[in-house]
Every structure is written in structure tokens, then in C-alpha cells.
Write a structure and sequence with these properties.
Elements: H1 4-21, H2 25-28, H3 32-47, H4 59-80, H5 85-101, E1 105-107, E2 110-112, H6 119-131, H7 137-146, H8 151-170, E3 181-182, E4 185-186, H9 187-197, H10 205-216
Antiparallel strand pairs: 1-2, 3-4
Helix pairs in contact: 1-4, 1-5, 1-8, 3-4, 3-6, 4-5, 5-7, 6-7, 8-10, 9-10
Length: about 220
């Protein structure tokens, strides 16, 4: 289960990233759940759904889509509380507790049991709920399990992607002088390496990750 400290860290990072994209993101009221719909459809593509041709599930890409979906779910939770991270935290923890107790999902006058659905059907239900402007973490958690992820793995990948995005921006990514290759290796490779060396349960995990990237970045 996601810890309170991890939830706090992710909400803080998401709020910061939203502000970096647009300082007036709360007033802009971007359609974050629409983005969940699109990312969910992309996840179905990475799984494969076409019965008239051979397709193979691309697990790493599915996991990447889940990370993107989580960005937008967090953004919507924050937006629901006008960017207030403390209130968003209460809401997120309540949604997580509800998901832990919940055994079925009522939608469109039907009841769905997440664990009885295959992965594509789970993704379809996630899309339908997002299109109806609903956040239900029980279906998201069921999708995570099918994609071989737990909350710790999600947290690590989410924080890693956010921290790297911040690091890139802080080192001239938008201006075009950021170095993506460090000493013959891409920055993503360094990210994976330093993530493996740190404790994800550390409250200062994100800050230590950023510092480790700064240490490796060419002067």
C-alpha cells in the first residue's frame, strides 16, 4: 500500500510539475481526466486488442502508460481541491482506503468486479469512469497488478520520471543546451542506476535522487 509519506511526496512533485508547465494551471482547469481516457486507450494499444492480427503485449510500455495515467489522476485530485496539497492528500488517502475495502464498481447500472475482468476490460472500465469524471483507484490498482506493478514500483517510477523532468528543465532543456548523453550514456540510464541505490521509503527520496543526478551530470 502507498504510504502517507509517499503520497505527500507525489502530490508535491505533481503540483510542482503542473506549475512548471503553467503557473496558472489551477485557474486553467485542464481536462486531466480526458488525458486519462487517451492514455488508457494507448495502454490498450500496447496490450493488443485486434483479433484479426497477431499482437504481443508490451509490458514496459504498459507500465509507462500507467505512470502517465497516475500523473493525470493526481493532477485531477489536486485540481478538485484548487491545488491545496493538504486537502488533496486527505482525498487521495480516502480513495486508497476505499479501494482497499471495495469489491465491486457500480457504473451505468451495472456492477463490475475488477478481479474478474481481463486487462483490456479493466482498461475500458478505467476509461469509462474517467470519461464520466470519476476516479476509482480500485480499478487502477487491479490494472497495476496485471501489469506486474505494486505501489512501491509505481512510486519509484513516478518519482524518477518527475525528478528527471525537473532536472532537465533546470539544466536548460527548454533552451536547448541540456546534455541528454552523459559520458557516453543517456540520462535515463543514470536514472535507473541511482534509483536502484536509494531507499524509496526515505522521505527525502526525491531530493536525494535529484542530488545524485546532479552529481553525475557533466560540469
Amino acid at each position: 500500500m502507498l504510504s502517507r509519506e509517499q503520497a505527500i511526496a507525489m502530490l508535491r512533485l505533481q503540483s510542482g510539475m503542473n506549475a512548471k508547465v503553467d503557473p496558472n494551471w489551477v485557474a486553467a482547469k485542464y481536462p486531466y481526466l480526458r488525458a486519462v481516457v487517451i492514455e488508457g486507450a494507448e495502454a490498450i494499444e500496447h496490450h493488443g486488442w485486434k483479433w484479426w492480427k497477431h499482437q504481443s503485449k508490451d509490458l514496459p510500455q504498459l507500465q509507462m502508460e500507467l505512470i502517465d495515467i497516475w500523473h493525470f489522476l493526481l493532477s485531477q485530485i489536486l485540481l478538485n481541491h484548487y491545488g491545496n496539497e493538504d486537502k488533496a492528500l486527505v482525498s487521495l488517502l480516502e480513495l486508497l482506503e476505499q479501494a482497499r475495502r471495495q469489491t465491486d464498481i457500480e457504473f451505468d447500472n451495472r456492477h463490475y468486479i475488477p478481479n474478474s475482468l481481463d486487462l483490456v476490460a479493466k482498461l475500458e472500465l478505467l476509461i469509462a469512469l474517467a470519461a464520466a469524471r470519476r476516479i476509482d483507484l480500485s480499478i487502477f490498482e487491479a490494472i497495476m497488478a496485471d501489469c506486474e506493478m505494486d505501489w512501491t514500483a509505481l512510486y519509484c517510477q513516478y518519482v524518477g520520471k518527475n525528478v528527471l523532468n525537473f532536472f532537465r528543465q533546470d539544466n536548460g532543456y527548454k533552451q536547448g543546451h541540456y546534455l541528454k548523453v552523459w559520458h557516453g550514456r543517456e540520462d535515463n540510464e543514470y536514472l535507473v542506476e541511482v534509483m536502484a541505490q536509494l531507499d524509496a521509503s526515505d522521505p527525502d527520496y526525491a531530493d536525494k535522487l535529484y542530488s545524485a543526478l546532479q552529481h553525475h551530470y557533466p560540469a
